[in-house]
User: What shape does this take?
Amino acid sequence: MLPPFCRIMQKSTKTWILFLLIGVAITARIINFDSVFTAEGVLPQGNDANYHTLRSIRAVKDFPHVPHFDPFMNYPVGAPILWPPLFDGLISGIVVACYGYEAGDEDVATVAAIVPVALVVLTLPLVVLLASRLLGWSMAIWAGLFFAVLPLHVIFSRLCYAD
Assistant: This one.
């Protein structure tokens, strides 16, 4: 049995390691900061990110309804949107909470740029907690590091890749 001071240090060390892992995860995902936040405004990375931002803009204007049909796809007939509405609803909900119903397109693009990185910051502690329960603390550190720098996960959760 460890004395109380050692147990406190042990918890403190775990907290610092978790913050370090979160810092590594954020750093890996915001390397493209200069190409996203430019003098021209926020530039989404890729067609899917552009469409998620557009759908979020439409959702803010008609909050809390997220469009399920796009009249401009398959013009002039229109087409149903195949993506589930949760991600775009999350972006539009954050925009309405932070900027109100009169938020501009640039406000929506800014939130859409930050949300993927914020979701990683919220998910990483859950990964570490689950791994520590299943595999122990030393393997949880490795699981968190793997989650933080896994190239495919970094690509799809980097700054302004709202997809």
Remarks:
- The mean pLDDT is 86.
- The chain has seven helices and four strands.
- The first helix runs from residue 4 to 29.
